[in-house]
Design a protein that fits this description.
Shape of chain A: globular
Oligomer: heterodimer
Order of helices and strands of chain A: EEHHEEEE
Strand content of chain A: 35-45%
Largest sheet of chain B: 5 strands, antiparallel
Helix content of chain A: 10-25%
CATH superfamily of the domain at 15-22 and 59-141 in chain B: Hotdog Thioesterase
CATH topology of chain A: Thiol Ester Dehydrase, Chain A
CATH architecture of the domain at 15-22 and 59-141 in chain B: Roll
Distance between the termini of chain B: 17 Å
CATH architecture of chain A: Roll
Largest interface: A-B, 30 and 30 residues
Strand order of the largest sheet of chain B: 1-3-4-5-2
Radius of gyration of chain B: 17 Å
Chain lengths: 129, 145
């Protein structure tokens, strides 16, 4: 079970992630696109999925990542990601509830380039009973 | 009401023409590599069945990426997309050797200043797989066709 004290805490990554053109090309290529300059709208999941999992795997948080199902996802894109962006991820458990034995956790992850907020994402994750 | 030279005006109630994307195991592998999500439920049939799934299922985020492509093709690129959301209602089941459909359609629900709001529905094999899906697109950043 999630430690209720974790709700509202923000965990910020120690390192920045530098986006490369080949990563954007590979992601866009799966969607049948070539010669793209800006990343597709959902590209940031490539960064936030791994980063938030790492940031929220602290034993003190108590989130069981092995039993998670992705419930819903939202992106707020302040500007598109481009190659060369150096992004720092910070993740916050914004909401937590238990329904029918399932734990429902909303994780917000913000990607900043320096002080500029580039993308915010919200992932609702369900830990099945 | 804004005329960007598209076949239909951007106005409330306008429908974005339905498109079908095809998903197979090869696409799941390609998406796993491009996204970094190597969860075996998206590639390994025996593993997927061992955790109670009927077969290999597509990444929810692949479904969402393809729905994103539906929006960005309509908008003339990724730059105009300001918000995008959806709920993973049912999994897209991808049997070995099969190509399964992802059928996507959209309706413009609001036009306010620079903002166009779109509701999107995505089904596979006739079953809704992405629900509550919405996008917010900036008209001024759309490229004319």
């Amino acid at each position: 079970m999630l430690n209720p004290d974790s709700v509202g805490r923000t965990f910020t990554g120690a390192n920045v992630v530098t986006v490369t053109q080949s990563e954007i090309d590979a992601f866009a290529g799966v969607l049948g696109e070539s010669n793209v300059i800006v990343a597709p709208p959902t590209f940031s999941i490539r960064i936030t999925l791994a980063q938030s999992q790492q940031l929220l795997s602290d034993p003190d948080v108590g989130l069981d990542w092995s039993r998670l199902v992705h419930g819903d996802q939202k992106f707020q894109i302040h500007r598109p990601i481009v190659a060369g962006d150096t992004l720092r991820c910070s993740s916050t458990i914004e909401n937590y509830k238990v329904a029918a034995g399932n734990e429902i956790v909303t994780v917000r992850s913000d990607l900043h380039a320096g002080n500029e907020l580039v993308v915010s994402t919200w992932s609702t994750l369900v830990v099945r009973a | 009401m804004v005329n960007l030279g598209r076949a239909s005006m951007i106005e409330i109630g306008s429908v974005i023409e339905q498109r079908i994307f095809w998903i197979d195991r090869g696409l799941l592998k390609a998406y796993a590599d491009a996204s970094g999500d190597q969860n075996p439920i998206h590639q390994d049939e025996a593993f997927a069945k061992s955790v109670g799934l009927p077969d290999v299922i597509a990444h929810g985020m692949l479904t969402m990426a393809l729905v994103g492509k539906f929006i960005t093709d309509w908008a003339g690129g990724s730059a105009p997309v300001k918000e995008f959301s959806g709920r993973f209602v049912k999994p897209v089941i991808v049997p070995a050797g099969a190509k399964v459909d992802l059928t996507v359609s959209g309706t413009i629900t609001d036009v306010q200043g620079d903002d166009v709001r779109i509701d999107i529905v995505a089904t596979s094999a006739g079953i809704k797989v992405l629900g509550m899906s919405k996008a917010l697109v900036s008209i001024s950043q759309m490229s004319p066709l």
